[in-house]
Amino acid sequence: MSLIALNNIYKIYNVGGEEVRALDGINLKIDENEYLAIMGPSGSGKSTLMNMVGCLDTPSSGVYQFEGEMVQEMDDDQLASIRNRKIGFVFQTFNLLPKATAQQNVEIPLVYGNIRKAERIKMASKALEDVGLKDRMHHKPNELSGGQRQRVAIARALVNNPSIILADEPTGNLDSKSGHEIMGILNQLHQQGNTIILVTHEDDIAQNANRIIRLYDGKITEDLNTKKN
Amino acid sequence: MLLLFENFFISLSAVFANKTRSILTALGIIIGVFSVTMMGTLISGLDKTFESSMSMLGRDILYISRYEWFGDMEWWEVRNRPRMRTEYVQKVKQRSKYALAVAPVMQRGASLSYGEKETRTEIFGTNEDYMKTITANIVEGRFFSQNEDRSGSRVTIIGFGIKEAFFGEKDPIGKYIKIDNEKFRVIGVLEKQGKFLGLFSTDKQAILPIGAYNRVFSKRGWMRLSVKIPEQKIEEGLDEIYSVMRHIRGLKPNQKNDFAINQTKAFEKNYNMLKIAIGGTGTFITLLSLIVGGIGVMNIMFVSVKERTREIGVRKAIGATKGMILGQFLMEAISICLIAGLLGLMISYVFSILLNQVFPSTLDMRLAGFSIFISILVGVISGIIPSYRAANLDPIDALRYE
């Protein structure tokens, strides 16, 4: 069974009386430990697809199964719970809480997962260690470089041992050196057995993945397996 | 439960992150809680003053005079009423079966002196029954006797304040003081009582036998009769004294009373009306300031939600449910109000200590608890709509918010 199975997914918005098909009949299966890049020009529906996969959004029609669970039937709280337990988000703009330290930022998913303070500190420290920020745990975001902030964000995505990591343009706000570092960490996470979905419009970033999907006008136009060796 | 604490800490850090804004917002609530507690403190202080003053009067005493204490009669009607007379004492005693004691009381201002020391005070002329109609006791010496009254003996019982001013620690009994230049021998001292309704000190007075009073200070002047009635028979006693007085005055059945019988009840009734007036006005002002304060908090919460739209989006993406976001912002509103409430309470506490120097006021623990409850309530009411809005933000829109 696939980790993620999208079956004939439509997402239709009504903009000023006109029907906009952001997702127009998407069929997609993602297996465990895949490293997938979603590409496409702006307006192609890649953000909508990512929100859909990340359980932030529900389809207008179609069937979305996440580890066999029917996502399209879930209410808001169930969606929140599945995001908390199964999905780790990495955003282009990091989206850390500015007044909290790196460690506190990483703890947030655990707070919502109702995990005790002592346990939380242990897990957060471990996640920060994994992304190479052991000595920066008590720094606030404005005391960290862009690359370091994104690593904190990755640690936050990792801390709950999610089924997939969803990275939306993770290097978009970084210089090329930091971008390489971040991609290095994602590659490493993939090698450790994580499932990673990358949304990007940069070809060389997408080349890190083993499978590339191209979207255009809400449809998948290409599904390329680039599995190395 | 765990989440409640987490939310509390999250909201506390949000409150402290915007100190100036939080304090300004809290000001309305601070003022509201301050006025709640001060109002309560004031009323309970008034109650205490009133209680102790009323205990000086005694609830089983009827006061017969020309005037109603709290009457709404026109002054010219009252002026034409006949005056009270000393003879009424005997007549009331003979005719009433309820009267346990009847004392005439005449009163005027006079100057008292002992050696170099001099003071102006009120003097009372009365009979030997007087002690039964007041609640204070003699602490030194004795009261005068019926014989001393009838023979016009120049003896006096002084208030505790006079004793302290004139004699200090020395024994005043047997000493002569001058009342408007007439010599009187001190035979007793009244116990210390304090001020009546905070108006005048009952410790600064001198009591004279009415015989001597009439001879020295003339028979004319204002007079009342104090009649003691058994405490369980006040209604019957009152009816009876009315008919006795009507009989003494020779009034026909169709004629109106030309005298008044007052009771401490009249004070109580008027006091309660005053209390309702103060309480009502106070409650209104308090409610108004709490509403204004609550609107301030609501406003700032809307700002806070708007400012942190992105944070809300992130939290939702990470797995916060609607309830958790609602709780977080509600807790923030409550925290502001709770801190404001505690500050208001502290200010009230300091104020009540200062005020206690001149007026009995102590901050009641129940009142303190109530004001904290009110602050929390204001927090919930003013926080609920902004928090609900935050909780129902769409995570995708919130994440995109710039």
Describe the structure.
The complex is a heterodimer of chains A (229) and B (402). By secondary structure, chain A is an alpha/beta fold. Chain A has one domain: Rossmann fold (3-Layer(aba) Sandwich). Chain A is 34% helix and 28% strand. In chain A, strands 6-7-8-3-9-10 form a six-stranded mixed sheet, with helices on both faces. In chain A, strands 2-1-4-5 form a four-stranded antiparallel sheet, with helices on one face. The radius of gyration of chain A is 17 Å and the shape is globular. The relative contact order of chain A is 0.19. The mean pLDDT of chain A is 91. With 402 residues, chain B is of the alpha+beta class. Chain B folds into two domains: 185 residues, no CATH class; 202 residues, no CATH class. In chain B, 57% of the residues lie in helices and 17% in strands. Chain B contains 14 helices and twelve strands. In chain B, the strands form two sheets. Chain B has a six-stranded mixed barrel with strand order 2-3-10-5-7-6. In chain B, α2 packs antiparallel against α13. The longest helix of chain B has 44 residues. Chain B is elongated. Chains A and B meet through α2 and α3 of A and α1, α11, α12 and α14 of B.
